[in-house]
Amino acid sequence: MGEAVLRVLIAPARRGIPKALMTGLAVMLVASALAAALPQLTGRVVDNADILDAATEASLTERLEAFEQRSSDQIVVATIRSLDGEALEPFANRLFRAWGLGQAGEDNGVLLLVALDDRKMRIEVGYGLEGTLTDLHSKLIIENTMVPAFRAGDFSTGISDAVDDIVMVLEGNAAELEARARRNRQEDNGLPWPVILFFIVWSTFFFGGFAMAFLPPIFGRKIGPKRYKWLGMTVDYNKSSIGSPGGRSSGGWSSSSGGGGFSGGGGSSGGGGASGSW
Question: Whole-angstrom Cα distance, residue 109 to residue 64?
C-alpha cells in the first residue's frame, strides 16, 4: 500500500503539479487507506460480528421487512468486529451513504450499528426521519434499552428490543418511550417518594421540637419566668414541662403569636442520531 501511494505522489511531481496539491492528495490517500473497510449489504440484518443467534436474526429480518412494506421506512441492523481505529460517527455515516439506505428522494433510512470490539453503538438517522426519530429518542433507546442488555452480555435482546423501540417511535408512539425513560430515572433515584415524605415529616417534628426546646432561651428575648419571645412567637415553658433531677424542667412547649395558634407547612444521513458505549 505504501509503494502504491508513493508512486501516485511521485508521478504528479514529475509533471510539475504544485506541491500544495500533492500534499492535499497525500492527505486524502492516507485517510482513505486508514479508513475501516465497509461490509457488504447482504440483507436487512448484516451480522458480521456474529453476535445474534439464528432465531433473533430471522425474527429481525421478518419484522424489518414487514415494517418497510407498511411504512416505506427502511431500518438496517449492522454489527462489525472493529472500527479499525476510525471514529464511530464518520464510519456510520459512510456506511449509511454507501448502502443508500431509505427510499430515493425520501432519505427515510435508519442504521443501527454495533462495533463489538470497540464496545460502541450508534443509531444513524436519515434526513427524512430526523423530525420523528430525534437525537433524544435515539439516545434514550441506546441508554435505556441497548446498554443494560449489552452489559449483561445479551446482544440479541438488546438489538431486538432497540429495533422494536425504533419502530414504535417511527409509528408515532414516542410518548411511550419517553414515559419509560422517566420511570427508569425515578427508579434510579433510589428511595420511593412515600418513604422520602415520611422522613421529611418525621424530621420536621423531631428537629422542630428540639429547636423549640433549646433555641428560644438562647436566641429569644426573655419576657417572664421561662417565657421567651422568639421569631415572632411567645414560647412558654411553664404550660407543659417534664420534671428532671434538681428541679430543672424541660420537654414540652407551647407557642402563640398575637393570640393565634402557630402553624407551618412545606438515502443520505443528516448526521442525526446518537452514539453510546457499554
Answer: 12
Other C-beta atoms lying within 10 Å of the C-beta of residue 207: 10
Cβ neighbors of 141 (< 8 A, separation 6 or more) are: 123, 162, 165, 166, 169, 177, 274
Average pLDDT score over the chain: 78
- Orientation of helix 174-188 relative to helix 155-170, angle to 10°: 130
Closest by CA position to 163, among listed 149, 145, 180: 145
Q: How far is CA 167 from the centre of its chain?
A: 19
Residue 90 CB contacts under 8 Å (≥ 6 apart), including other chains? none
Question: Which of 151-165, 169-183, 200-214 shows the lowest per-residue confidence on average (mean pLDDT)?
Answer: 200-214
Q: Which residue has the cell 440479541?
A: 156
What confidence category does residue 202 fall into, taking pLDDT thresholds of 50, 70 and 90? Answer: low
pTM here is 0.62
pLDDT surpassing 80 at residue 118:
yes
| Torsion sign across C-alpha atoms 165, 170, 171, 172 | positive
3-state helix, strand, coil in the chain (%, to 5): 50, 20, 30
Rounded Cα distance between 96 and 132, Å, is 18
Q: How many percent of the chain have pLDDT more than 70?
A: 65
Crossing angle (nearest 10°) for helices 2-14 and 19-34: 160
pLDDT at 111: 98
Q: How far apart are CA 172 and CA 68, in angstroms?
A: 15
**3 state SS of 78:** strand
What's at 251, amino acid-wise? G
Task: Show the cell assigned to 41.
Answer: 449489504
- Predicted pLDDT of residue 170: 97
Cell of 193: 417518594
The SS3 assignment for 17 reads coil
